[in-house]
Amino acid sequence: MKAKVSIIMGSTSDMPVMQKAAQFLDDMGIPFEINALSAHRTPEMVEKFASNAHKNGIKVIIAGAGGAAHLPGVVAAFTHVPIIGVPCRSSISIDGWDSILSILQMPPGVPVATVGLDGSLNAGILAAQILSVGDDELSNRVLNYKQGLKQKIIKANNSLSEFKFKFRTN
């Protein structure tokens, strides 16, 4: 089995955030790999990884980083494979805003799709949606997942009837 998605993170301290993407991909039956790569501490490794991603069969890269959060952008500079950036809170972060802005504000020609702060689940879902464009079986699995979300909200809304108020109209 060969990975289709690569989950990378600037530090293993980002794993608690990034494991949600990994779990979603696992649940969807999408082969993936996970590695720690630092744009600042191992730039040569990042360049080698990104430059070879497509040749190695990677279709989507999910890159999580905190603080200055340069990893997604640096990877995007070396590959044409779609990158999904996950800004992560970190011990050196300015409440995550530095990470968000570092990933979000990419220059023209070097796109990185960006999900919300600590939003690796959405990154996993987006990766699955990208892959499902050419895969009807995966498309159905993603659609079933989305239908499950719909059912959760319908059930939650029905349970709101338990709350009784004098002036409630529904």
Task: Tell me the layout of helices and strands.
Layout: E1 5-9, H1 15-28, E2 32-36, H2 43-52, E3 60-66, H3 71-77, E4 83-88, H4 97-104, E5 113-114, H5 120-132, H6 136-159
Parallel strand pairs: 1-2, 1-3, 3-4, 4-5
Index terms:
170 residues, alpha/beta, Rossmann fold, globular
What's this entry about, in short?
The protein is α/β, with parallel strands linked by helices and 170 residues long.
Task: Please tell me about this protein's structure.
The chain has 170 residues and is an alpha/beta fold. It has a single domain (5-135), classed as Rossmann fold. Helix content is 45%, strand content 15%. The protein is built from six helices and five strands; from the N terminus they run E-H-E-H-E-H-E-H-E-H-H. The protein has helices at residues 15-28, 43-52, 71-77, 97-104, 120-132, 136-159, and strands spanning 5-9, 32-36, 60-66, 83-88, 113-114. The chain has a five-stranded parallel β-sheet with strand order 2-1-3-4-5, sandwiched between helices. Helix 1 packs parallel to helix 5, helix 2 crosses helix 3 (71-77) and helix 5 crosses helix 6 (136-159). The longest helix is centred in the C-terminal third of the chain and has 24 residues, at 136-159. The chain is globular.
